[in-house]
Amino acid sequence: MSKYILIVSFLFASFISSAQELNCTVSINADQTGQQNLQVFRTLESQLIDFINTTNWTNKTYKNQERIDCNMSIIITDFESNLFSATIQIQASRPIYSSTYASPIYNYNDKQFNFSYSEFEPLNFNINTFDSNLISVIAFHVYTILGLDADTFELNGGEEYFDTAKQIVNTAASSGSAGWKSSDGNQSRFRYNDALVSQVYKEFHTAMYEYHRQGLDLMSQSQKDAKNNIINAIGILKGINDRRPNSYLLRTFFDAKADEIQSIFTGGPNVNITDLVNNLNRMAPTKRDNWSKIQF
Questions:
Q1: DSSP H helical segments within the chain, as ranges?
Q2: By the 8 A CB rule, do 143 and 163 touch?
């Protein structure tokens, strides 16, 4: 019996230690190319799923139930030989304490995603080198997801991951691929990461922690207190917006959170929403339809 227990314990420990950080689905849509049934697209999809979910992105051990749920949807708009033009939509969520609900933490539409790929080529990531734009873009978003997730559980918990994403940006900047340099527009990977590591936006990390850990995670204990903490977190974001109106960082935040915020404040215990709605309309005017539905 003792040998059986030892074997089971070892197998269980091995399973736990082998679990990686992400539980990511990948889908590739090539309808726009007119060649959507080519095997190369299915091969790339399968390789990316394996690459993202089996790579050790950190030196930490994640239990299977702790893996971060995310989705990457790639739309191939054109290709010639091994050169692909595409966009990639990345979404990620984290579970809420004592709930079956998963809160969205990342919703990023990356339109600067051209890459080269030959079917069955190895997909490997090395932080110190630029191997391909495909690998660098995927790795950048993986570390951004890890950072945002960590921010929601611990104050400034994502700093090391955002710094790693910054290293990817710096390494890729000389590649000539779009999205890695300050000159690549205001909605680029460079701009987003630059805000995440900048002292100008440092309160964003506090807001992420208070919104999730002091807000959503407390819903099962006191909905009113949780809602007020979420209002306070959104007030912190207003301070950022006052300094940097219409920042890409906040626009991306509200792309992920607009439906959730609307849902939180359209039912349950009554709280003062006057300042909340005013702040939301100032920070995210494109989401006015959501904010107009916040009422008691």
A1: 2-18, 39-54, 133-153, 159-172, 189-197, 203-212, 223-243, 248-264, 274-283, 288-291
A2: no
Domain containing residue 64: 1-145
Q: 223 in a domain, yes or no?
A: no
Q: What's the alpha-carbon Rg for the chain, to the nearest Å?
A: 21
Is residue 230 domain-resident?
Answer: no
Q: Write out pLDDT tens, residues 111-120.
A: 999 999 999 9
DSSP 8-state code for residue 10: H
CB-CB contact of 35 with 81 (8 Å): no
**Look-up: residue for tokens 């995670």?**
217
What is the enclosing helix (H) or strand (E) of 57? none
Residue 161 lies in a domain: no
At 7-16, the pLDDT tens digits run: 333 333 333 3
Q: Among 7-11, 106-110, 186-190, 218-222, which stretch is predicted with the lowest mean pLDDT?
A: 7-11
**Overall number of domains in the chain:** 1
pLDDT of res. 74:
98
User: Which residues, 6+ apart, have CB-to-CB distance to 183 below 8 Å?
Assistant: none
- Over 70: is that where the pLDDT of 209 sits? yes
